[in-house]
Amino acid sequence: MPRWIYTLVLNLLVPFVLIRLWWRGRKQPEYRQHIPERFAIYKTPSPERPVIWLHAVSVGETRAAAPLVEQLLRHYPDYQILLTHATPTGRATGEQLFGDRVMRCYLPYDLPEAMDIFLAHYRPRLGLLLETELWFNLIDACDRKRIPLMLVNARLSEKSARGYAKLGKLTRNALAQLKVIAAQTYADAERLRALGAGDVQICGNLKFDVVPSPEATASGVALRQTCFPDRPVLLAASTREGEEALVLDAVAKLAIPGLLTVIVPRHPQRFEEVASLLKKRELDFVRRSSRRVVPEECQYLLGDSMGEMHTYYAACDVAFIGGSLLPFGGQNLIEACMMGKPVLIGPHTYNFEAVSRMATECDAARQVADPEALASAMAELFGNETLRREMGERALSFSRSQGGATERIMALIAPVLQPLD
To answer: What is the β-pairing status of strands 180-183 and 343-345?
Structure first.
């Protein structure tokens, strides 16, 4: 595909994108905020200090970027850090993690004029794209303006690789224009090289360097003691559309006295949808946002709060990671492993293929085929405290053994970005 066709398609889609922002804003009003930034229209002046720019699409990428941002702030204090996002939840996470220590805005849509204005306004000395973000006009604009651009914490599933391969020369040219690619695994690196990438280094996964704060552990302990003491707790984390019903079906098969199931949907705009499902099934539940104690007869807690995932992991006994029972590709299981919890995942984990495989191989996680197998695995774990403890210890050991990506990526950045005099 020639890049001009790609650009033409994007221009034709602009009206529909605006309609989609308005539509999503019905449930999540934040989508209707800062819209001018998505077209490189800025009210604030250009930064006075030189800029290091990182693009983290949403929540997962922003959290993964945290150790790298902290190291950049430490090693390059004369630079200003700019974080760009594509979703309100990513932006809110960046604000929660870094406050006013970094600048933040939405990355414009990948239109040539918008990208030129964005780069002229912020004048970054270095750009870092996280994970699988190939913005073809952005990459070309950085190349024309001689702005070094790196793809870091890069992952590429077989499914995504097939999609990019269909774009042919468009993908090859974009990958060749990147200064360097820091891939998570050997398999990611090989797929990227097969698509035309040049300098690809294997650096590991930044998410293993995200250390839960002591406050998160303390909050989890406090949540359990104050809201649902002395109860076994199952966490269904980052669930996606249709999965909550399957989890409820699995839990209904269990006969575990006092079991409390905490359901935390992946996207906040689905909180009401999951609440409606619980009401439809006539299941008593408490919303986390109410800060109420969960009555003993109540079996469900709806995790309708932001920024508390580590708290939920600290409070549970067993964690099921959503996005994996149905073909969504899975969600991040590293956080649960870092909190020393036994992990259950479904069959669909292509977005976290390597991590899922390594975790299951060392029995830090178990992969189940369907809701029936999920119910069986839950019953086994809740029926065997020793098994839960040993599996949690393996999960913690696994997560600690995989760190170091931040240090390796910083070593790639150093020759490109020298401290200012």
So the answer is: unpaired
Q: Is the pLDDT of residue 83 over 60?
A: yes
CATH topology of domain 3-204+404-413: Rossmann fold (3.40.50)
- Residue 287 pairs with which residues in a beta bridge? 302
Q: What is the mean pLDDT of the chain?
A: 94
- What gap in Å lies between CA 34 and CA 91, rounded to an integer? 11
Is the CB of residue 237 less than 8 Å from the CB of residue 264? yes
Whether the CB-CB separation of 52 and 417 falls below 8 Å is answered with yes
Token pair recorded at residue 352 = 């976290």
Taking only the tens place, the pLDDT of each residue in 306-350 is 889 999 999 999 999 999 999 999 999 999 999 999 999 999 999
Q: Give dist(CA 355, CA 225) in Å, integer.
A: 32
Contacts of 206 (CB under 8 A, 6+ apart): 64, 65, 67, 68, 130, 152, 153, 405, 406, 409
Indicate which residues carry an active-site annotation: 61
Q: How far is CA 348 from the centre of its chain?
A: 16
One fold for 3-204+404-413 and 215-401: yes
Confidence of residue 419 (pLDDT cuts 50, 70, 90): low
Residue 110 token pair = 């990948």
List residues bridging with 103 in a β-sheet: 82
Whole-number pLDDT of residue 421: 46
> Which tokens sit at 346?
């479904």
Tokens 């959503």 appear where?
322
Identify which of 162, 166, 167 has the alpha carbon closest to the alpha carbon of residue 139: 167
The residue assigned the tokens 């870094």 is: 98
**pLDDT for 110 beyond 50:** yes
User: What is 215-401's CATH topology?
Assistant: Rossmann fold (3.40.50)
The full DSSP string for 60-96 is HHHHHHHHHHHHHHHH-TTSEEEEEESSHHHHHHHHH
Please say if the pLDDT value at position 161 is more than 80: yes
DSSP strand pairing (80-85 vs 343-345) = unpaired
Instruction: Write down the pTM of the prediction.
Output: 0.88
Say if residues 71 and 148 touch (Cβ distance below 8 Å).
no
Q: Where are the domains of the chain?
A: 3-204+404-413, 215-401
Average pLDDT rounded to a whole number, residues 356-371: 96
Alpha-carbon gap, residue 94 to 97, rounded angstroms: 5
Q: How far apart are CA 94 and CA 293, in angstroms?
A: 30
Give residue 27's pLDDT. 84
Element (H, E) at 55: strand 51-55
